[in-house]
Amino acid sequence: MQMLHNQMVSAKKENQKLLAILIDPDKVMITDISLLAEKINQSPATHIFVGGSSFEGYHLDDIIVALKQHTKLPILLFPGNPSQISGEADGILFLMLLSGRNPDYLVEHQINAVPILEKTQLEIISTGYILIESGSETAVERVSQTKPLSRNNPEYIAQTAKAGELIGNKLIYLEAGSGAANAVPLEVIEMVSKSIAVPLIVGGGIRSKKQIDEAYAAGADMVVIGTAFENDINFFD
Ligand code: 1GP
Question: CA-CA distance, 91 to 51, in Å (whole number)?
């Protein structure tokens, strides 16, 4: 059953906004987890995402097990490649890089992930992932060897998101890239949110509470915060 996805759809219907904190396993140590989880529990976060563009997954299980000991929030994998799959999480954003034309990130990694996923109970949530130009090259761009969509063409971005929904994506994720100089423009969020019915996730370069609220007001159903919390554990205080 698609429990986590159903909850996101219900939250959208009730206009209850969601917030995910992204943890990059490359940047945390197991010994940090209890303090991190305590801070996450005190924050408005509703979800935890775990993943990164280049991480090879060597202590992923341990990190998730440790997180689960300290928080009840659902943990979703946000993988850069199939090595970043852990059956310890609750679900996985099964990403399709709709903005790019690299077949590895459109279908190859997904095929290779199947035997790994079949050994888990993870809730698999098909997610159309759209990289938007944000001022300079981001890790997603480098690793996926794809170009982001122009931030000045909201119509084409909305068209891309709609195609994802028609293909069967259950979520659309607008990504500026971790640590992006510029977040996804509000105009883009607005146009995409109007063109799709599935929940809309927005992340990358969001570093203030004001920006979070603006993204919600523009139509984001969930905002993802990585770098801002990574740099300042008291970000939500
Ligand atoms: C990256 O959208 C996420 O995939 C979060 O980005 O690290 O810039 O918050 P930041």
Answer: 12
